[in-house]
Write a structure and sequence with these properties.
Elements (H helix, E strand, L loop, with lengths): L1 H21 L7 E5 L8 H8 L5 E8 L2 H9 L8 E8 L2 H11 L19 E4 L4 H74 L11
Antiparallel strand pairs: 1-3, 1-4, 2-3
Length: 215
């Protein structure tokens, strides 16, 4: 008898869930936008801080620009990665709204030894925003970065080709100048040798004077 009542309760729960889903009352997820991520906060730390307010389905943090990270690391700064902004998808829309309304502008707080104790939340609930919008945004930005990278590579290649062409021209002109100088040197050397031979002939030639008539 108890088994039949349990089966009936399960059936009623299933029917109620289906009825709510058909009426559009099924739970819908909500997305919260994090405008600024506290320095060096990792995704798991963020999840731990926010999940006490509601179950999180997905979370994405945008990494800082690679060149900015490399420049800071080269200058001797912190080598940890930073994140610039983030999106958090809660299982329930009401939890997402509550988190944005309750925490925005508030100090993160916690224990005073907490590294993020004095940082503040900068949260906003994104009405009508779906996670697919974020993936589309990421795909668009990825394509844009790839196009920009291809343009930079083409520009660099063009500059390198021009530089190599100028180097080749400079080498050709240098070789021509070297050949001219060598030819000029050989001509000067030949001219000097000719003058030396003439001077030698002059020195060897002697004048002979006739003292007696030849009969």
């Amino acid at each position: 008898m108890e088994g039949k009542e349990a089966d009936q309760d399960d059936m009623e729960s299933t029917l109620l869930a289906l009825r709510e889903q058909s009426n559009g009352k099924a739970k819908k997820p909500g997305v919260v936008y994090l405008a600024t991520v506290p320095p060096y906060m990792k995704p798991q730390k963020l999840r731990n801080l926010l999940e006490v307010h509601g179950k999180i389905l997905r979370l994405y943090l945008e990494p800082e620009d690679e060149t900015v990270w490399k420049k800071r690391k080269k200058a001797g700064g912190n080598s940890k990665r930073k994140y610039t902004e983030g999106w958090i998808q809660f299982e329930k829309k009401k939890d997402a709204k509550k988190v944005a309304l309750m925490l925005n502008g508030q100090q993160i707080g916690g224990k005073k030894r907490n590294f993020y104790y004095y940082d503040t939340w900068n949260l906003k609930y994104l009405s009508g925003f779906k996670w697919e919008h974020l993936t589309e945004k990421m795909l668009y930005e990825s394509k844009t970065r790839q196009a920009r990278l291809r343009a930079e590579i083409a520009k660099t290649k063009k500059t390198n080709d021009y530089f190599l062409e100028r180097v080749t021209q400079a080498k050709a002109l240098e070789e021509m100048e070297n050949r001219r100088n060598k030819k000029r040197k050989n001509q000067n050397l030949a001219s000097s040798e000719n003058e030396s031979t003439i001077d030698k002939d002059k020195r060897v030639r002697r004048q002979v004077y006739q003292h007696k008539p030849i009969i």
